[in-house]
């Protein structure tokens, strides 16, 4: 028996077999390809179709926007087709020359630092509130909702008493107007929308009927009609001295309009909160507002976050409609500039619109990405 | 009931005070220290901002001329960009003092909208642009041609009328927007493109090879462009009209921006009356007697404004044509100052 222990058993391994590499088809780049692009016949067809689409669209786009593009120059001559450049590309030189107009509109050049300061203050506020682990976000909220509006008004409109001359709103334009209208709309629509949504579910008939009437009326009329009424009909009824400022009219119109939509989005969220939550909150003897603020709304808003962001993005793009009131928003400034005979070429308008598309895409995609990161953070509690 | 009556009378009072303010536009403008002018904002040569955000253009200069006459300062104008849809409302409601937004003077507008047109500052009309390779020099040679045109405009109707009245056959190719129509013309889908001649010259520059295309001399419709004011303030309308006449007279007498100071000493009685060296003509408008001198000094005469904004001195290079002085075969006839 002892001898047996000494002789190695030939068919028993003493060392583990060398690990085989996993099948090529399931790891690395090839594996990734198989798993995410070619996992089934249907997916393979889709992948090939998308690849064909990209190959079809991307090279000409890239050639127009980057390779053949003209980046600087004094006038239209540089953007025209020539022997060296038979296919003219985007005329970015035109955008460069007009860029300050696209951003500030008619805002006096000497006072444009005020707009820059406003952009900086706004970015600071958004950053403070948006960065979820930033310190003292309660102060941030105070800054954003109480200090910033006053600061912006003083900066942009002016306050002669402290040496900032008044800049009438008819001189505002470009990105400035787009940002102001969008920010006011977004910031105003959420609280008003929440109040309207609560009002619509209220047990007090007067409140309920007011909320329903407001929401249904505003939703039933196109935004462009509201703005048009404000610009064309209002001046005929109201004497000139009492007439509200044009930009203010547009701001109120956009804010009310967005609120009505927001109210319905929030109502959807409220409906999604189980009845037991209301009953439990009541059982804890919470008042109506504490119940809403501490129990119901946090859940409702979280459930509707994608829809809220959707409304914001829609609103951001709807700001272009303010041109019917004669306000030159970002898109309108581009449309005005493309008529400039100094820069009139076959590619000028295309370049202008490409620039506008880029701007709106960056803004909207930024909002959408941010919302996704917030959603991911909020859903951590679900996974626990 | 009493409350309603109070509210009503308050509203009436406000309405009347607004009405009273409208009757004396010049007074209001002087008090405000600024003229408010409705302008286009998107039409090259007529009303368009430059990259620094300054308003430029033929209509814009007209408003500056009014400001120069009143304040001796052409910068005292606030420009309000207006669309075709809201321009008359802006004027009727008193939001602007004068509308200079390439607006055609038509009978229905003059008689029904509560506005008055002051003077034709620009005789516009529909024209044609053709490829040079067609070797066409007159619109009458366009028999059988295909013409690109924007859909649903008076332009489209004028085109059909013109071809029918000249017994020519026509192939119209219509597009929803002017941009598409121009693109199609540029790519060779049509022999010709038609729109108002003031716009035609701007569109020409957007073509791939502007020099391979010519604008034909024929103008087939009447589009007299005129600044307008609210009805019911005749003295303000007079002022706006005479700003235009003064600029025309100045061109006719050879008074320009650069020589206006020397011309002040001219012996020519017509020039002396125009520039205020003789007579009290400015006062009768509610202005100072050097009102026309101020216009010429700051803006220049009609020809100078035309050249700078839309004529040879600008990229548009619109020929004077109907807008030449009557002494040179055009229709611009300055009324006498006396």
Helix percent of chain A reads 55-70%
| Shape by Cα distribution of chain B | globular
Give the H and E element order of chain B: HHEEEHEHEHEEEEHEHEHEEEHHHHHH
SSE-based structural type of chain B: alpha/beta
Low-confidence stretches of chain A: none
Oligomer: heterodimer
Biggest sheet features of chain A: none
Summed over residues and divided by their number, the pLDDT of chain A gives a mean of 87
Question: What features would you highlight for this structure?
Answer:
heterodimer; A: 384 residues; 68% helix; 0% strand; globular; B: D-Maltodextrin-Binding Protein, domain 2; 2 domains; five-stranded mixed beta sheet; three-stranded parallel beta sheet
Structure in words:
The complex is a heterodimer of chains A (384) and B (338). Chain A is 68% helix and 0% strand. With 384 residues, chain A is mainly alpha-helical. Chain A has two domains: 26-67, no CATH class; 94-383, Orthogonal Bundle (MetI-like fold), CATH 1.10.3720.10. In chain A, helix 7 packs antiparallel against helix 8 (205-219). The longest helix of chain A is centred in the C-terminal third of the chain and has 31 residues, at 288-318. The two termini of chain A are 58 Å apart. Chain B folds into two domains: 25-123 and 224-328, 3-Layer(aba) Sandwich (D-Maltodextrin-Binding Protein, domain 2), CATH 3.40.190.10; 126-221, Periplasmic binding protein-like II (D-Maltodextrin-Binding Protein, domain 2). Chain B contains 14 helices and 14 strands. Chain B has a five-stranded mixed beta sheet with strand order 10-9-11-8-12, sandwiched between helices. A three-stranded parallel beta sheet of chain B has the order 4-1-5. In chain B, helix 3 (58-71) crosses helix 9 and helix 3 (58-71) packs across helix 13 (291-298). The termini of chain B are far apart. The chains are: A mainly alpha (384), B alpha/beta (338).
């Amino acid at each position: 028996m002892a001898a047996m222990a000494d002789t190695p058993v030939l068919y028993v391994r003493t060392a583990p077999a060398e690990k085989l590499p996993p099948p090529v088809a399931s790891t690395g780049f090839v594996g990734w390809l198989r798993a995410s692009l070619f996992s089934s016949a249907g997916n393979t067809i889709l992948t090939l179709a998308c690849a064909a689409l990209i190959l079809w669209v991307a090279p000409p786009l890239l050639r127009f926007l980057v390779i053949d593009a003209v980046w600087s120059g004094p006038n239209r001559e540089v953007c025209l087709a020539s022997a060296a450049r038979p296919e003219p590309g985007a005329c970015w030189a035109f955008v460069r020359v007009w860029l300050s107009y696209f951003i500030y509109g008619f805002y006096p050049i000497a006072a444009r630092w005020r707009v820059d300061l406003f952009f900086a203050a706004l970015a600071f506020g958004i950053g403070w509130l948006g960065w979820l682990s930033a310190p003292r976000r309660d102060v941030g909220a105070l800054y954003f909702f109480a200090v910033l509006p006053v600061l912006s008004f003083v900066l942009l409109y002016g306050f002669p008493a402290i040496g900032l001359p008044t800049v009438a709103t008819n001189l505002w334009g470009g990105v400035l107007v787009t940002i102001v209208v969008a920010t006011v709309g977004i910031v105003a629509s959420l609280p008003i929308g929440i109040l309207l949504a609560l009002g619509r579910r209220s047990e007090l008939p007067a409140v309920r009927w007011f909320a329903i009437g407001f929401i249904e009326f505003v939703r039933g009329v196109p935004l462009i009609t509201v703005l048009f009424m404000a610009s064309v009909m209002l001046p005929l009824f109201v004497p000139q001295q009492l007439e509200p400022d044009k930009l203010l009219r547009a701001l109120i119109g956009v804010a009310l309009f967005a609120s009505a939509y927001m109210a319905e989005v929030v109502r959807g969220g409220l409906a999604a909160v189980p009845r037991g939550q209301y009953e439990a909150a009541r059982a804890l003897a919470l008042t109506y507002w504490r119940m809403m603020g501490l129990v119901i709304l946090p859940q409702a808003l979280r459930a509707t976050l994608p829809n809220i962001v959707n409304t914001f993005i829609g609103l951001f793009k709807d700001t272009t409609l303010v041109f019917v009131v004669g306000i030159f928003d970002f898109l309108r400034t581009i449309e005005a500039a493309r008529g400039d005979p100094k820069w009139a070429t076959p590619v000028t308008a295309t370049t202008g619109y490409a620039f506008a598309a880029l701007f709106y895409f960056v803004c909207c995609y930024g909002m959408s990405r941010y919302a996704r990161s917030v959603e991911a953070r909020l859903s951590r509690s679900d996974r626990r | 009931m009493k409350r309603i009556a109070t509210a009503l009378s308050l509203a009436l009072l406000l309405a009347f005070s607004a009405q009273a303010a409208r009757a004396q536009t010049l007074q209001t403008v002087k008090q405000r220290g600024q003229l408010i002018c409705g302008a286009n904002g998107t039409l090259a040569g007529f009303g368009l901002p430059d990259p620094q955000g300054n308003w430029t253009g033929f209509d814009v200069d007209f408003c500056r001329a009014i400001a120069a006459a009143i304040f001796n300062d052409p910068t005292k104008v606030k420009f309000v960009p207006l669309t075709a849809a809201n321009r008359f409302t802006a004027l009727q409601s008193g939001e602007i003092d004068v509308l200079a937004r390439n607006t055609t003077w038509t009978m229905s507008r003059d008689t029904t909208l509560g506005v008055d047109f002051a003077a034709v500052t620009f005789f516009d009309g529909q024209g044609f642009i053709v490829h040079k390779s067609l070797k066409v020099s007159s619109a009458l040679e366009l028999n059988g041609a295909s013409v690109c045109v924007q859909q649903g405009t008076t332009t489209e109707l004028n085109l059909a009328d013109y071809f029918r009245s000249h017994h020519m056959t026509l192939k119209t190719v219509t597009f929803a927007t002017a941009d598409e129509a121009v693109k199609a013309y540029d790519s060779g889908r049509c022999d010709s493109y038609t729109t108002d001649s003031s716009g035609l010259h701007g569109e020409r520059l957007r073509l791939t090879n502007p020099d391979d295309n010519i604008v034909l001399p024929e103008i087939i419709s009447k589009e007299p462009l005129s600044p307008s004011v609210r009805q019911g303030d005749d003295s303000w309308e007079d002022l706006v009209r005479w700003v235009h006449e003064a600029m025309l007279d100045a061109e006719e007498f050879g008074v320009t921006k650069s020589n206006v100071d020397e011309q002040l000493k001219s012996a020519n009685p017509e020039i002396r009356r125009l520039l205020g060296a003789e007579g009290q003509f400015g006062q009768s408008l509610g202005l100072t007697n050097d009102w026309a001198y101020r216009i010429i000094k700051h803006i220049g005469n009609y020809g100078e404004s035309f050249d700078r904004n839309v004529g040879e001195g600008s990229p548009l290079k619109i020929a004077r044509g109907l807008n030449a002085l009557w002494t040179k075969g055009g229709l611009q006839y300055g009324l006498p100052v006396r």
